[in-house]
Each structure stands twice: as structure tokens, then as C-alpha cells.
Amino acid sequence: MSKDFLLSNKHDDGGWGYTFRNKLSFMEPSSWSLRALSFSGTTISEDTMLYFVNRQNSDGGWGNLTASSSDSMTSRVAWALCAVDIDQNIKNSAIDWLIKNQFPNGTWGWKIESGTGFIEPLTYSLLALNEFHYPIDQQLILRSIISLRCDDGGWNCHTPEMSGIKQQSQDSTNALGIISVLTIEENYKDILKNIVNKYEKKILNKELSTPYSLGLFLWAFTEIDDLIEDITINNTCDLLLSQQQQDGSWGNNIFWTAIDLYAMSLTLRRLLE
Amino acid sequence: MKSRLNYDIIKRLDERAKSIHRVGLNFEEGLEFLLPLINYANIKETTKVAIIYCSDYDSREISQALLRGFELLDLGSEIINRNSILIKPGLVEARDFCDNVTTNPIFLSALIECLKEINSDCNLQVCEGSGHERDTEYLLHKTGIKEVLKNHDLDFIDFNQEDVMKIDYDDSLVFRSLLLPKIWFETEYRISLAKLKTHHRVALSLGMKNLFGCVPGSIYGWPKNYLHWMSTPRSIVDLTTYLKPNLTIIDGIFGVEGNGPLHGLQKDSHVIIMGTNTACVDMAIAQLIGFSPLLIPMFWYALKQKLIKKIELVGDTWIEIESYKAPSNISWLERTYFQSTDIQISTLKKLLDEGNYFWNVYKSLESINQTQ
């Protein structure tokens, strides 16, 4: 049903918007829809493939909108395209763009002009590079992930400290922080033990209840494997399913539905392995 | 076409120069240019800013205060004739409304009531693009806004996920063009609704700074660091020029002083301030809480872009707001509005001298660029 929801909300250009309100297609929900549909066993149509191919900028990257300059959305597109069979040159030039626009401290920002890296663009860049088995400076990147960590052990969307004041982490970014550590560090247990315990309790107490954050955490939990109880994954699935609407969507929102479909498909795959 | 700073050069500057640029102390014009912020020299046009007493977050009292404000500003016919009205609250983070970081839900509800009372047929929308929270559902729940929308049967429109359109503006300070939510420009009447807060980087987070929430994260990220990188006060003024809210309402019932906007302390000021000129609403508030606009870069740039008019304060002008504590990194700003003109100008000179460090470094890199 979620698949049907996504497919029925595809635009004529082969892409997707964030919500049904959008007439424009954006790279981010389109990338997620591609990845989600692919992982759920749906064949990706040619118009969708062309949507990405035709919008790659000459520098190898993508912006979120057609003809907008390349930015961190490149990582989402590159990561999504790893799930499909597409001209390797397209993927290679995307990876080249990512490498070229990494900041000296190992992070990636939202826009190349902004000069500061954050956990979300870093995580997706890492995922893309990892799928390509691109050799990266793991220690540098791990140090940057840790440097972005708040005192409570998690991550927020900005910085762990602002004007000398310690900041709190956010549910909506903690899952991404976990995924970034899992992607780069084999000995992740010590780094993630506390934050994972925290969210196991939150899931048990039903304190996490929104489609966006639940989807990201289901994804993160499924990737963690040995650090998480099966019951936590089951509980997260249950919470997510309880949020699903009759039309198969979450919140009638294309972006959230794609994330949640991906997370559920990934979980199902792991269960069957 | 205005000439602009070369950002390839700015990227190569040292941290001190970059910081000066971000805070906006590298003002291109000289000290004399800024004196109208203190004496209104050569500024002929006037704009009204209404100040209304409101003791607490009581829905009825807020509604009455708002209606009185609309009357003082002669807004009745403005609002009544509109087919569509947009309210842009400030929801930067998913915080409990008691923290006073985000728009108070009771205030928002009261405003919606007022607008419906004046114009029951209009298409009313509540829109915002949170700078720090991508989980919209969580944001609306935590801030208490979800209940308000449900009670009024209104949907929330997330600017961060909306269709955008390119707006070009040759005469801007930093952005030749911006991708901004189409719905803003398709709506007839736009209200910027913000809390009265101090700000560690730009001194004040009021009507102009609230417009950061109109910049979609889908294009500019979470946080919208790009706007700070390009120079926060310049970005603020550019956005004000691009977006031109029809009405700015500032909730100062409980303001935030000290290390605002996220970590300040509640300051009970019991006022609502509103006006049709966003920059002047902000400037009036700066004066009322004791911060000299002469010493705040976003007003320099507002003056440069001809946004500043003579302020005519109307309404409960008897109110004396206790001076606000400034953020600890700019604590010298406290009570500067009450200092003599000479002292204010002397402080201004020091600020502009700091800005000169930027120009020295920038120009030397620029000339190296040109000779290569």
C-alpha cells in the first residue's frame, strides 16, 4: 500500500515532491522514493531514472531542485542510485563531487559555501561513499562525528555547543548519528551503547511517536544488529505501523512514507536473512 | 547593479575577519551614514508602531489587545478585504512553549480568532520553516501548536517542504536571488508573528529575524547556516526586503533577555508591539528595551536599504519596559540607548574600527587576486 501511495504520487517528470501539495519535484524525496521502492522490490521506471540522469549538474552533483547548484543532496542521490543499475559514470562523478566538497575537518555541510559541517549531510555522504567502497580517512571522519556529539551522547542538527552553552541532542538527528558511526566504525558498541539504550527505553515507553523519527530509528536499529534486542525492532515496527494511514502513507507525506517504507523493507530483508 | 563582496575571498580570510563579516561589523559606508539612526536626519517618512499593554497569556485579553492594535494602525479595511492571510509564527526548535523560545500557542490562537472575527471568509494559513527541526509532527506537538491548529481546523504548511520560486533582486545586499516559498507570494496578506528575544549574534530576534523561517530548509539546509555565513544582519535585511510582511506582531508579554534566542531568561514585559514596517517595529523595540539601534548592525543595513522611517509610537505609550540584559558576549549593549549621543557615537566608532580589520585583510587578498 505504501508502494502504491508513492507510485500514485509520482510526478510526470518521474520525480516526487515532499507532499501532495508540491507541483515541483525535489531530489530528496525522489531519492528516498527511489531507494524505498527499489528495496521493496518495485522495478524503477525509466522516467524516474531519467529524472536523476537529466538533472545531474556538469560538476557531477545535484541540487534539490532542477537547475539549482549542487549541494548536499548529491549524497542522497548518489546513495539512492546505488540501489539501481545506472551508468557508472554518473555515480562516479557524484562521488568525485562529494570528495571534492568535503570540508578539511572531514565533515560535509548543507551548502558548499557555508563552511560548516553537520551530522545529517555528513551521514548521507558517508553512506554514499561506503556503498561505493570509496577509500576514506576513517579516523578523520570518526573524529568529526564524535566532535559533533552532544554531552548527552547524541547529536543535534547544529552544534554541540552554542555561545558556550551545551546543547541537547534531538530525536530526529540521533538516528543519523548512530547510522554514521555504524557506517564507519567496526568497534561501535562503546560509542553507541548509551544512546541506543536510551532509545530502547523510549520505544518501550512509546515516547517516540512520529513517522519521521520512528522511520529513521527503525532503519538505525535494523543496521545495529547485535547491540539491539529483537523486541525493540518489533516494538518500533509496531509503533510505525500504528501510525500508518489507510492509504498506506504516513502523515499523507511522501517524504516520510518513503523513509518509512525503506525502513520497513530493510527490516523485512534482515528478518528473512 | 550593486557590487557585492567576493565570497571566494571571504572563504580565505582568517577567523577574526570571517567572524567580523558574519556579525556584519564590516559596514561599507562610514560613521556619518549611520547618524540618522539616532537623529532621523533626511528621513521624512513616518510609520506607526503600536504598543499595547497585555498582562498575561489570557486569550481574551490578547484578542482585545490585538484588535486595539489593528485599530491604532488603521488595519481594519486592510485585513477585511483580503481573500488569503498567512501567519508566520516562530518555531525554530521543538521546545515547550514555557521556554519562551517559540510562539506561544495561546497567542497564536488569539490572533487566529481576531482575524476570523474581522474576516471570516478569508483563507487563513499558518506556515513556518523550522530552522532546527525536520520532524514537523514532533515540532507541532512539542510547541503546543498542533492543538491550536486542530481547534481552529487549520492545516500547518511547512515552508521547508513547499514549492519554491526564484525571486531576483539586483539591489540586495548579499543574495542576487533566493528560492522562497511560492505560497508566501501567492498570499495577499502576510503576518510575521515573533517573540521578543535577544540574540547572541545580532542582538535581537524580532520581526526581521523571524523571516529566517521563510527560507526553506529543502534548499538551504537545517540549520540555515548559509544565511549566517553570508553575514547574518545582511541576510536578515535582504529577507525583509524580499518578503515584505504586511504586518509584524511581536509578543513581548513574556520576552527573553540575556543569552537569547535559545538560552535566555524570561522577562515579563507585558506588551504587544506591532506595525506595518518590520524594521521599524524592531527598531522601536530596541529603543524600548534600552539597546541603541545605532550600535546594532542589522539596523545599519536596514538604513542602507532605506527601510528605516521615523517611528511614531502609538497606543499605550505610557508603558516603561524594564531594560533588557543583552547576551553575555555583547553585554556592553545594555542601556546604550539611554547614553548620550557622544558616547553612543564613540562606541559606534570602535565597532566600525573592528570592521576595518576585515577591510584591510579583504582588500589585500583582493589585490593579490587581481595581480595574479
Report what the structure shows.
Chain A has 273 residues and is mostly helical. Helices cover 55% and strands 1% of the residues of chain A. Chain A contains twelve helices and two strands; from the N terminus they run αααααααββααααα. In chain A, strands 1-2 form a two-stranded antiparallel ribbon. In chain A, helix 10 (211-224) runs parallel beside helix 12. Chain A is globular. Chain B has helices at residues 7-10, 15-23, 31-34, 36-39, 59-72, 76-80, 105-118, 136-143, 145-151, 182-186, 207-210, 217-220, 225-229, 232-243, 278-288, 297-304, 341-371; strands at 46-53, 84-88, 123-128, 156-158, 164-168, 177-181, 189-199, 203-205, 247-257, 265-275, 310-315. In chain B, the strands form two sheets. In chain B, strands 1, 2, 3, 4, 7, 8, 9, 10 and 11 form a nine-stranded mixed β-sheet that branches. A two-stranded antiparallel sheet of chain B has the order 5-6. Chain B contains 17 helices and eleven strands. Chain B has 372 residues and is an alpha/beta fold. The A-B interface holds A 17-19, 21-24, 26, 28, 63-65, 68, 71-72, 109-111, 113-116, 118, 120-121, 156-158, 162-165, 170-172, 210-213, 251, 253, 255 and B 7, 11, 94, 132-138, 141, 157-158, 161-164, 179, 200, 218-223, 225-226, 229-230, 259, 262-263, 327-329.
